[in-house]
Design brief:
The complex is a heterotetramer, with two copies of chain A (123 residues) and two copies of chain C (194 residues).
Chain A: E1 3-9, H1 12-23, E2 31-35, H2 46-55, E3 60-65, H3 68-80, E4 84-88, H4 92-104, H5 109-116
Parallel strand pairs in A: 1-2, 1-3, 3-4
Helix pairs in contact in A: 1-4, 2-3, 4-5
Chain C: H1 5-33, H2 38-53, H3 60-74, H4 79-93, H5 100-115, H6 124-137, H7 142-151, H8 175-189
Classes of the chains: A alpha/beta (123), C mainly alpha (194).
Bound molecules: adenosine-5'-diphosphate (2 copies) and magnesium ion (4 copies).
Amino acid sequence: MSLGITLVSHVPEIANGLPKLLDQVAGDVSITTAGGTDDGRIGTSMEKIMNAFSENGADEILAFYDLGSAKMNLEMAIEMSDKKVHLYDTAFIEGAYTAASLIQAGVGLDEIETQLKPLTIKN
Amino acid sequence: MSLGITLVSHVPEIANGLPKLLDQVAGDVSITTAGGTDDGRIGTSMEKIMNAFSENGADEILAFYDLGSAKMNLEMAIEMSDKKVHLYDTAFIEGAYTAASLIQAGVGLDEIETQLKPLTIKN
Amino acid sequence: MALTVDTLTSWMNDFAGKIEANAQYLSDLDTPIGDGDHGFNMKRGMTAVQEKLQTKPTDLQNGFKTIAMALISTVGGASGPLYGTAFLEMAKKTSSTDDLGELLDAALKGIEMRGGAKPGDKTMVDVWNALVPEVKNGTLTQEKIDAAVEASKDMIAKKGRASYLGERSKGHIDPGSQSSGYLFQSLLETEGLL
Amino acid sequence: MALTVDTLTSWMNDFAGKIEANAQYLSDLDTPIGDGDHGFNMKRGMTAVQEKLQTKPTDLQNGFKTIAMALISTVGGASGPLYGTAFLEMAKKTSSTDDLGELLDAALKGIEMRGGAKPGDKTMVDVWNALVPEVKNGTLTQEKIDAAVEASKDMIAKKGRASYLGERSKGHIDPGSQSSGYLFQSLLETEGLL
Ligand SMILES: Nc1ncnc2c1ncn2[C@@H]1O[C@H](COP(=O)(O)OP(=O)(O)O)[C@@H](O)[C@H]1O
Ligand SMILES: Nc1ncnc2c1ncn2[C@@H]1O[C@H](COP(=O)(O)OP(=O)(O)O)[C@@H](O)[C@H]1O
Ligand SMILES: [Mg+2]
Ligand SMILES: [Mg+2]
Ligand SMILES: [Mg+2]
Ligand SMILES: [Mg+2]
């Protein structure tokens, strides 16, 4: 069973840029993104998030977000999606980088979550 | 005495995109960035960081970075710069967003640092 | 107190009018303690709702779903999933009742579930929490609405963007509380609803 | 064991040659526990160093400064500020000594200060920490260099990108330890240095 990553940011540039950092250490991990609103403003979009889930090549997804309202759209998208998605309240970039490195190294979900725990900063 | 923000990211797009998130809540705060290496690759550049310091309109700078090697270039730039720069090991985006909101609200450095403390996740 | 497709539509049109008229004010409220977009967000959302409702919904459930989807897909900010969830929960609840008070109760639970805010956290939850019981008791008045919105002013934000300001969020009306105030005001002003 | 502008230049040219020849290998070492660029980073840096050194430095301090600045401004990754600081500290130290062992001692302190890594953290610090005393004792050998580099293999990374992998960083040679190994190997191979 494969693990992938979905990144949700309020800013399209951040959503587009972060995979470049992760690809360096996790070239084989499927990483999909949802950045900005449907019309490209600062914000998030449940539809874009659902697309990011379905475009992701992995069976199970680890999802990371920047600010709180992104989390709400993420949760709605998770409720409406068939895929198994795990949502993390970690530092956005640092959590995603950690997860990407560990998935690439073949580490399992349990161990990944143990390593993500100290990066949890949102509620 | 005014406070500004400098953002250092390995990825040019992230360095360019993050100010859009911060400007929404901190339109009056001077925010300067250094993203990528001198030749636009993924990485950081001490020279770009020094430029970000000197371009910043504030007297005192709060600096945030994404990954550890950015911190080393930041510290070298700080040693070589005349400006007073405070470096934070917080979650990158979340720390910068918190600082920007508080600077805009006129909060002083001490109180800002108290609020940044729980976001510290690097060493 | 039984809602119909027609009274739901009137309610929404009235609410859309208030949002439109007060969009700048709502965004101004969002400026010192947020990102200054709440009025524009809600205006975009309610304009989409009004357009969708020009085609009469087949039933109440459909009406609520249409409203929810329009808000979810156009608002962009936190208020999108929050109001969206409120209307989605009301849609679900129409399977068992068309009583306005019970529907609003379900909406409030939805907002709390979606955002994780509790009363006192300086969010729209405070206004809903104060006013839903008044609707159920038949005691909703403009004074009570104004008081509920005003009460957000002295609170310290624990959720949403304003929470980043901590103590500094005090002294400002919460924009989402104000827009929710308009939603309840529209209930008062819409014929045959209360 | 006194360094001169000429022996420094020979040392750097020899090191640049090794980096050039092993760039792909160093990047391959960086792939399982990093971002796969260490060899390319170092090659870019040492090519810049070689170019700068084509103009003969006026004195030892200037030579070290030139090397440091070239590395700092072209490498891009963590190894840039680390090697850069090493050479910068050696530049400073030339004010009081031209003894290779003492200069290397200052370099090691600089690397530790810059990166905050301690011996055992699976970084280049381990190789410097093991080999600087050998230089000072006049006991540096290829075997000792190989052993110091190889020792990084079983360590668990506590600093740098490899530290994100925790336990999984075990079993791989640290790329920065390997490139530092080449730096010491160049000391062995450069006439008149040890
Ligand atoms: N977690 C939450 N729970 C309940 N209400 C919230 C929450 N977060 C924000 N809100 C409400 O949303 C309003 C802000 O909406 P809006 O400005 O449209 O979104 P954003 O903050 O994303 O720009 C706030 O005034 C508050 O009433
Ligand atoms: N904090 C640190 N202290 C000492 N050495 C470090 C530190 N971080 C990284 N290194 C060294 O740098 C090497 C990686 O260099 P390089 O690949 O060029 O940089 P990056 O990791 O930024 O891509 C590691 O193998 C390690 O030896
Ligand atoms: Mg807002
Ligand atoms: Mg917004
Ligand atoms: Mg590397
Ligand atoms: Mg790199």
